[in-house]
Design a protein that fits this description.
Helices cover about 40% and strands about 20% of the residues. By secondary structure, the chain is an alpha/beta fold. The N and C termini lie far apart (about 45 Å).
């Protein structure tokens, strides 16, 4: 039981605006990850006990940097078991999320968790970002590869119109100077330690690549 109390306290502490229904969903999400992880390794086994901080809260670091406006669309690339997309979809119920990954069994887990949580704003497909025809206001991802490799996959995924804050929101860790220089992109970096006190966030960042 301590897990769910911990997740509730953790998330409501950092996001006091969360409703009881949203907190219930995060609790249930954590249970579902535990159940699925027994069958399919979506989160590293040794990390399961830190699911709340290392995965759910980490995903929500993006919500400290941008509030997605209602009725916008977000593409989550290389979502794995649904991170950061699923936690963000609970936080922003009026925003549409499309989660993609090249590994079918992971997408199956995403679809099942979204169904169990009644997340009407989530779709998921087994595909690569470059093959998605639809256009989006925002792209999110969690450290799938170096930014220089990632950018070409998604640079054509954006709508023409300008949602406030339109761009890529990339969760990364460590010293990024060389990687950001290599990408040649204009970026803005937010340190998650400015928002969250857990030691895990000491070197974790959200890299934002604004899109014209």
């Amino acid at each position: 039981m301590s897990h769910s109390i911990a997740i509730r306290t953790l998330l409501s502490g950092y996001f006091p605006e969360l409703t009881e229904d949203q907190l219930d969903k995060y609790e249930r999400m954590a249970e579902l990850y535990r159940e699925w992880n027994e069958k399919i390794n979506v989160v590293s086994r040794k990390d399961m006990e830190h699911l709340g901080v290392h995965h759910i809260l980490h995903s929500l670091g993006i919500a400290k940097v941008i509030q997605f406006p209602e009725h916008t669309q977000v593409l989550d690339v290389g979502t794995g078991g649904g991170l950061p997309g699923l936690p963000l979809a609970v936080m922003f119920p009026e925003v549409r999320f499309h989660l993609v990954d090249s590994i079918g069994k992971k997408i199956h887990v995403v679809q099942e968790i979204a169904r169990e949580l009644h997340l009407q704003n989530v779709t998921a497909s087994q595909t690569r970002a470059e093959q998605v025809r639809e256009k989006f206001d925002f792209v999110v991802s969690r450290a799938v590869t170096r930014l220089a490799n990632f950018y070409p996959w998604v640079m054509n995924s954006f709508k023409k119109d300008k949602a406030p804050g339109k761009g890529i929101y990339y969760l990364k860790g460590g010293d990024l100077q060389e990687e950001l220089a290599e990408s040649g992109l204009i970026t803005k970096t937010y340190d998650l330690k400015d928002y969250f006190t857990e030691e895990f966030f000491e070197t974790k960042k959200v890299v934002v690549v604004p899109m014209p």
